[in-house]
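User: Show me an example of a complex going from sequences to structure tokens.

Assistant: Sure. Here are the input components:
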Amino acid sequence: MKSSSFARPSLSSILQPVFSLRPKHGRPIICSTILPKPHTPIYLRPPAFQATLSELKKWHIWAKNQATSVGSTFSDLDNGPDSTLLHRELNWLVEDALEQPAILLPQNSRNNYDDATPLSIRACLDDLYKLWKQRIEERRPFQYVVGCEHWRDLILSVEEGVLIPRPETEMILDLVDNAVKGNEELKNGLWADLGTGSGALAIGVARILGLGCGRVFATDLSPIAVAVASYNVERYNLQDRIAVRLGSWFDPLKDVQGELSGFVSNPPYIPSEDINGLQAEVSKHEPRLALDGGANGMNDLIHLCNGAASMLKPGGFFAFETNGEKQSKFLVDYMHTKVKGSFYGVNIISDFAGIQRFVTGYRA
Amino acid sequence: MGNGGRFRRFHGCVMIAAFQKLQSHFVMRGINVCQLAGHNPNQVFDKNTLRRRSYSTSTFHKTAQLQPELSVDLINIMEQKLSVIENRHAYLQAIVNQVDALPEEYFTANKELKKLRHTIDVVTELRKKHKEIEGLKLLIAETQDDKDMHQMASEEMGQASEEEKHLRYLLLKSLLPKDDADERDCILEVRAGTGGQEASLFAMDIFKMYEKYSQKKGWKFDVLDVAESDLKGYKEACAAISGADVYGKLKFESGIHRVQRVPVTEKAGRVHTSAVSVVILPQADQVDVHLRNEDLKIDTYRSGGSGGQHANTTNSAVRVTHVPTGLTVAIQDERSQHQNKAKALKVLCAKLYEMERSRADASRSRLRAEQIGSGDRSERIRTYNFPQGRVTDHRVGITSHSIDGVMQGENLDTFVDALLLQQEMDAIASLTSKQ
């Protein structure tokens, strides 16, 4: 979804008129490109289908057996999910797809519901079989299966072509929260989330800034990401405070150069040669555009680092996610040598697994 | 309802006796006697009977028959307390009114004033009533000759002393030691104990019982974490319950709950005995327990790997460790790391708060130790006997013969109310013995 090194020639066709002549009220996307229509997560679909309790029980038992049969195969193979995790995911699928999910819970198995009871579901029975088959056989990520990811206190719509926000990334918002606390200038300033994907960080930042003057730009190179992020922004009713723009990194933000109070990014940072060895859920299903950071994984981080110097106003805050210790240290070193004097208070922060995941600092 | 009427009177007697003798166990023994008398226990212990026994003010106001006679000792104690309270109130009022009062002084005085407000209102009313009674006494003495006036004054006198009694009772209630935590929300922890799979199945049943009870009460029941056993029972389960006075109502549920039944796994049909432990903790927030972020260590206890974009996992389990005490709480069932962390913190705060409270309790008088629910979690408090269809609480000696009703959360009030009643009786007893 994000990379400056990808698909430059085709960009012009997407980017053309950045400002539409007929801006629709309340629509954050001001762009003439026809964006794909985002999928609705299962849990938000109407319970328009029906199946009997016995049919659903049969499906549930089948699905549980599928999950059990996986054992530790996937986790041994590529650090994928084991049975325990798949069982938990199955519970969540039931939670999302059934109007009365409790009926299939084990503790209700002793309740005497009539097996012929018709139950309302949000996807047809055939689809439930299909979806779980995709999860087990094709290793399709669970979040794509149900069409959403629970992230912080948000439920974000996700689909193929959009990176599924990671739990680690949640911490960037804690870092932003700390920076903004007691700093009215940051709180009421302009922020940007570059390579926004599902819009997770942009939405999180906008909610931290609150109802003041603070505004957030979310940019992404991928039209699908822009469509999905816009959908999520609207679902959280933040279209007045977040502008989603299509384009590579800082390109769509030329009009606010040097005016940003803060920016955050989780850019692609995996070294190209590592991509194929990733767990199947990632390597086979998630967009390479959002993962591949070039030869050493640093291409985009360096690009953002350079951009930060020109985009942020003095005192402006930044937070990047990186691949870990090596990249974080490289980045800090880069800031201290190559763009010397541009930043201060540069810091490396570890995630909950103890990996040196984030680099933060301020524009001098 | 012939029986019901008899019982109601009987209960009235028991209460008066209890108030006079101030021996809590008398009441409970009395109830047991009722039950042994062989009447339909469901009727004896239905909700209404218990509510009637729960000394609600409205009951006392309306049913003169049930007005407890407070013992002379108790009245004397309360009379002494009146001036103590009034003096304290005046002293605090003076601090609050001081222009140059230190902010901290002002704050603590104000806090105490708030607590005293209800009591002082009753005291004022009681003083007024005393004056009225004095006036009426005088009037009665002066109107010996005027028959009509005399009778009117006597009637008013009768009414006034009834009201005085009621006010005394209200004052007594407000003087009883109150647990500040009673109004808090609570954390429920259920753990399977001895008895293997059967114990974990019963742990699930007990957990569900509290869930249904909460629904019935209009409380919010939020499952925090469930560790399932192989047979789909619960090895351990944890929930946050919120609503009005939740902790005060449920605190006596802490302890060992024993079950006697034929397990589903038992082929020979033998009755097994197994046990489940229940812990009820008052909820607290980070401010209550002075929790500092520096004291917390948060980690994901996942097996290695590079994380971040490398991994797509729905496992966002989080473990929170409170470094100074070494307490750890791990939560894994939520769908986001943020929520797992929030829930883990909630449980951790409740545990820290409980630790602080038990420290404070230990240094406090013997008062609490003598009361029910001394906090000893290894105490066997209740037995659920399925073959006989009964549930017995060993602390108050009450048996409910509607085990299904109890498990469905419908008849749990039988015990909850009785335990609260006993708490009140114990408190009265300690109030007088302290003097």
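The lines above are the inputs; the final block is the predicted structure for all two components together. Chain A is about 35% helix and 20% strand.
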